[in-house]
Amino acid sequence: MIKAQVSDLQLRMSQFFIGVLCLMPLVLFGQSDDSYTRYELLDPATQSFRILYDVTITEPGSTFYYNTLRKGSEHQVAMVKDLSTGMNLEWAIVTGAQAKSAGFSSADLATDYLQVKLTRPVTEGSEYRIRIDKTYKDPNSYFVRDQKLVFKRALGIKRNAVVLPKGYEIISCNFPSQVGLEPDGRIRTSFINPDASEVPLQIEARKLPSSADLTFHASPASTVGEGKGRDKSKARVDYTLAERAAQTREIVYFLLDPATHSFRLYHDYTESRAGMDHYLNVVRAGSKASNPSAKILDNGMSLKVETLRGNEITRKGLDPGEPVTSDTEVVVIWYPAVKDGQTTRLRIEETYTDPNRYLLNNDELVFDRSFGRPFNTVKLPPGWFLTMNVVPATIHYDNDGLISLDYVNGSPDEIDVLIRARKR
């Protein structure tokens, strides 16, 4: 009986995915949440900064992308690149009137736009990822005051980094941020904005003495934020900061009938390492994965997926990053090897059954799970209302009548999510 319930719900969820999943980034986090902006401050005397803007276009049928060029700024565009293929794209600076006549209905007639020509129309359920490389001169955003460098700018994109000129230290930042040293010795601050409003960011910096040591010391990659925790009894002297705002992993959980202990999920991930041709998803102890599927979001291509256990993993030469035992289970997604200068955006979908972390207790749904990704969403089953949520989340009633909780975690540590709900 339980299997029949899962099958029916999975079919309904699959129909849901096919119908509206391509709109998910807009519904869940908004297109700007799937975007990332890196500001590289140039010599303060120039009042200029380089902007590297990664953005994902999801609207089916799109053949152009329009990037607003801020008023009051002098702009120079270096290039626009297709992140999937690494190819440079055609672009032009157009007026608001030209953009509107080309089909951009919301164009402001008093604003100029960067018009990017896509190499293919965006198809249903796929994405088109681009990087814009441009430089702004903006005395209102970047200036020197009282011998201090000041970067003051309202930022609407959710994931941002600001890199100081080499030889400067940060002395003030008005928004909670990470700080790290770049390999070339520049200091970077970065953040994820969990709110719906813009961040009125203001950063101040000052020149360091020439004797300051700006040597970058690389350390082994940290596993914090990947579901493995850390030894909290010792200082992290060998810790290398993985910039949280630049991480590309997102996950959405669709809770099924709690009597089944099952939830359907999909998670998105961008692979940029040349030569990589597979993705390993280690199934947590106490959980069972079923009905896995995957595709490349850049073109909608379906991928080969297989579930391996114990010796099957080692026989294929796969390394899950932990000792392999007879109980170890991994879901392997195979895809064409990533070429140098290219990236691949994956979407993996599967059903998890986990009676230890998703269950009914006195007729109350209990979902208790640690999240390591920056962006996480949980959707309650139809007909259930929320009675407890331990970790702060934004909550909304989605277009399909489900209560949806969005968790944005800018910290590298996991969050232990605990949700309870009852039948209406």
What features would you describe in this structure?
With 424 residues, the chain is mainly β. It has 2 domains: 2-29 and 249-423, Immunoglobulin-like, CATH 2.60.40; 35-207, tricorn interacting facor f3 domain (Immunoglobulin-like, Sandwich). It contains 4 helices and 28 strands. The strands form 6 sheets. Strands 4-7-2-1-10-13-12 form a 7-stranded mixed sheet, with no helix packed on it. Strands 18-21-16-15-24-27-26 form a 7-stranded mixed sheet, covered by helices on one side. It is globular, with a radius of gyration of 23 Å. The two termini are 23 Å apart.
Map the helices and strands.
Blueprint: H1 2-20, H2 24-28, E1 36-41, E2 48-57, E3 64-69, E4 74-82, E5 91-94, H3 96-101, E6 112-117, E7 128-137, E8 142-145, E9 148-155, E10 159-163, E11 168-173, E12 178-181, E13 187-192, E14 199-207, E15 250-255, E16 262-271, E17 278-282, E18 288-296, E19 304-309, H4 311-315, E20 329-334, E21 344-353, E22 358-361, E23 364-371, E24 375-379, E25 384-389, E26 394-397, E27 403-408, E28 415-423
Parallel strand pairs: 1-10, 15-24
Antiparallel strand pairs: 1-2, 2-7, 3-6, 4-7, 5-6, 8-9, 9-14, 10-13, 11-14, 12-13, 15-16, 16-21, 17-20, 18-21, 19-20, 22-23, 23-28, 24-27, 25-28, 26-27
Summarize the structure in short:
This protein is 8% helix and 44% strand. With 424 residues, the protein is mostly beta strands.
